[in-house]
Write a structure and sequence with these properties.
α6 packs parallel to α7, α9 runs parallel beside α10 and α10 packs across α11. Strands 16-15-14-17-18-20-19 form a seven-stranded mixed beta sheet, sandwiched between helices. The longest helix has 16 residues. It is globular, with a radius of gyration of 23 Å. Helices cover 29% and strands 30% of the residues. α7 links the parallel β14 and β15. The chain has eleven helices and 20 strands. The chain starts with 10 loop residues before the first strand and ends with a strand. It is α/β, with parallel strands linked by helices and 391 residues long. The protein binds S-adenosyl-L-homocysteine (SAH). The site of S-adenosyl-L-homocysteine (SAH) has 21 residues, from α7, β15 and α9.
Length: 391
Amino acid sequence: MPNEVRVSPNEVRVSKKGAERYRNGHPWIFRSDIADAAHASPGELVRVLDHRAHLLGHAHYSAASQIALRFVAGPAETFDIAGRIAEAQHFREQVVTDSDAYRLVHAEADRLPALIIDRYGDAFSVQALDQGMDKALPEIIAALENQFRPRAIVARNDSAVRSLEQLPREIKILSGQIEEPVVIHMNGFRIQADVLHGQKTGIYLDQRENYLAAARYASGTALDCFTSTGGFALHLARACDRVEAVDSSTLALEAANANAQMNQIPNLDFREADAFDLLAGYSSARRTFDIVVLDPPAFAKSRKQLEGATRGYKEINLRALRLLGRGGILVTCSCSHHMSEAMLLQIVAEASLDAGKTLRVLERRTQSQDHPILLTVPETHYLKCLIFQVA
Ligand code: SAH
């Protein structure tokens, strides 16, 4: 009888539903699908058995999170962290061009669940987001040291997700020394990254390819809303007469200004303001731009927040569209995984009707390729970047 299957130390048994989810290509098992984890300890690498006691594979066990298991290897595989990091680097060598800063490991998408590693030249930033990866940190550090001889490895373990795993939230230097800010090279620019305290792990690496895409349509005057350290704005400045960029964070704008100076860009003005208010003010003043970029923070951090988020996205898109004349370009982004591309398209469609503008879809883009997307793991796809032209 299946229910009488006993688990040995190091083993966890899952329900039929849990096993099916895994066989359908998803590496997570939720706590509700755990049949027996009596022997498993926090962060342990366990053998996972299905309801018939067949070995499904190997996973990290979390004693705290609703995501109780994250698979790291198949039944006949051993979990070799150094090997996985080397594979991840090999893939980046194929897809990253003109940048010494990129996401080296994108968690589940690189078969290193709950592990994120960002590379800023010879400085590395690590986020261990579950008990298993937290426990594996010494092995992860050793692998990075052997493969890359880094100047510094820092832990950006300040993410709120760590609380769900009952892990401390902290930022610390794991190896080497770091001189802030780190200066990296991207798309022909020198860009500074505050690897210890900046937003995300320093800069937004996921928009790297979208900066170039947006710049291809840019001319005249540009407005970059939610500019952070100035990524879109710098790229637009190469193609436009004047660029205005807005953010509400003083710290981000200091870095943005430093980036403009370091690259000797004269036609770029940064403004500290609330983007919603600024857009409304410009629309009342009948100001116009040739291109507007919207890259707000994730308005929907969970499914429950989707309704409020929908209103937020609609409002900024409507306000931005009012600033664009015929031929004008709207670049609009959402980094909420819960906001699908179809939903965002619908929101922009409604905003365009309210604004009385017909939009032509120029490009439907996503995160840069160093943040790979796995077809059967929808959580790995989070960024949408849509480019429209007013017809
Ligand atoms: N486009 C940026 C990333 C933007 S992240 C890049 O490519 O680097 C979102 C940014 O929105 C953050 O920098 C945050 O400080 C800013 N922000 C959040 N709420 C805001 C608001 N109401 N008005 C203006 N900026 C805001």
